[in-house]
Structures are given as structure tokens and as C-alpha cells.
Design goal:
This protein has one domain: Rossmann fold (3-Layer(aba) Sandwich). 41% of the residues lie in helices and 21% in strands. By secondary structure, it is of the alpha/beta class. It has a six-stranded parallel β-sheet, with helices on both faces. A two-stranded antiparallel ribbon has the order 6-7. Bound molecules: flavin mononucleotide.
Length: 186
């Protein structure tokens, strides 16, 4: 039986992907009750796209990947979150999660959310054979490999995990989750 959620907060993990990063930031900053977990790579990528200040101004609680044991995952054991969103999810983080590796803050929150039976929504960047994406200052076309596509498919097969493949699907999964929580809380 899934655990009953106690506290109404989203945990949102950002990874080092430029793909739809701005769109994810805009969307998450419009949500109430969200904590952000940053990968070390996204901290660099946020600077490259000049988004750091925008996120800082939003006054959202943020956890950085600065400890070997991923200390902030303790939040998940205290039932502080009803849902984990990993968006955008790099091919690196997706591959590690699929392999059961948890050696970064984001891969740890994915593993611990799973072990605590907390629903997860993942927006994997590499789900199509051709992706047109913004690099800092220019658009680029990349061709995800079969291994990237396979890992994206597999992450959607994890327990209580919803795979989304574009911003519309991500928004709709998050809004459905909020609706479901409101209905079960009322
Ligand atoms: C400007 C920039 C944009 C990037 N965009 C992507 C991306 O869209 N998808 C991806 O899988 N990796 C992307 N990367 C590479 C990741 O940041 C890199 O694989 C990193 O190790 C991922 O670490 P993380 O998964 O812990 O965040 C990008 C890197 C840079 C510098």
C-alpha cells in the first residue's frame, strides 16, 4: 500500500540540461510549496544561460549537491514531499537512475523517493531520435543514441513513475497530481 502523504510539497530536481530548462523554471516558479534540488551540473548550466538570478529571486528553498552522502535526502524520510519531479532530466541522470545508481543528490532523491513510495514525474530530454535544443547563444540539433532512448523508456517503467516527453505532458502530469492531491485532501 502506498504511504499516505502528510505534507503538501513538491520536491523538484533540476539537472544539467539546457533543453527546456527555462520552461521548467518558469513553470516550477509558478507553483506553490516547492523545494528545488540542484545537481552540480545544473548550477553551472544555470550560470551559462543566465538563469541563476531569476531562480534566486523566486525565493524558493534550494538544496545543493555539496555532500557525499546527499544529506538533504533526509527530507524524504520525514514525509515532507508528496511528489518528486525530475525536470529536465539529463541522459546522464536518467541512465544512472535506471541502473540503480545513486551517487549524486538528484539520483539519490530519485532512489529515496522510490524507496519511500512517493510518486515521481520525470521529464527525460532524450526521448526522440532528433532533438533541437538551445545551447547558450544558438540552437543545436542532437541525435540521442539508442542507449539514451532505451534508458528514457526504462525510467517510465519504475514503480509510481510517470515519464513525460515534452513540456505539455510535464505540465499536465503535475497539474493532474495537484488535482488528485486536492481531491484526496478535501
Ligand atoms: C550548456 C549545456 C547544456 C547541456 N544540455 C544538456 C541536455 O540538454 N541534455 C543532456 O542530457 N545533457 C546536457 N548537458 C550535459 C550535462 O550537463 C552533463 O552530462 C552533466 O554531467 C549532467 O550531470 P547531472 O545529470 O548530474 O545534472 C549540457 C551541458 C551544458 C554545458
Amino acid at each position: 500500500m502506498p504511504r499516505k502523504h502528510k505534507k503538501i510539497r513538491f520536491a523538484w530536481a533540476l539537472t544539467g540540461s539546457g533543453h527546456d530548462l527555462e520552461e521548467c523554471l518558469e513553470f516550477l516558479m509558478g507553483l506553490e510549496d516547492v523545494d528545488v534540488f540542484l545537481s552540480r551540473a545544473v548550477e553551472e548550466v544555470l550560470v551559462m544561460y543566465k538563469y541563476t538570478e531569476r531562480l534566486r529571486r523566486a525565493k524558493i528553498r534550494m538544496f545543493r549537491d555539496s555532500t557525499a552522502s546527499a544529506v538533504p535526502v533526509g527530507q524524504f524520510y520525514e514525509n515532507n514531499y508528496h511528489t518528486l519531479v525530475v525536470a529536465p532530466a539529463t541522459s546522464n541522470t536518467v541512465a544512472k537512475c535506471v541502473a540503480g545508481i545513486s551517487d549524486t543528490l538528484v539520483t539519490n532523491v530519485f532512489a529515496q523517493a522510490g524507496k519511500c513510495q512517493i510518486p515521481i514525474i520525470v521529464y527525460a530530454c532524450d526521448t526522440k531520435p532528433v532533438v533541437i535544443t538551445p545551447a547558450p547563444g544558438q540552437m543545436v540539433t542532437v541525435y540521442p543514441r539508442e542507449i539514451d532512448l532505451e534508458c528514457s523508456r526504462k525510467i517510465g517503467e519504475f514503480e509510481s513513475t510517470t515519464l513525460t516527453t515534452n513540456m505539455d505532458e510535464l505540465k499536465s502530469a503535475v497539474l493532474n497530481r495537484i488535482k488528485c492531491l486536492n481531491e484526496s485532501c478535501s
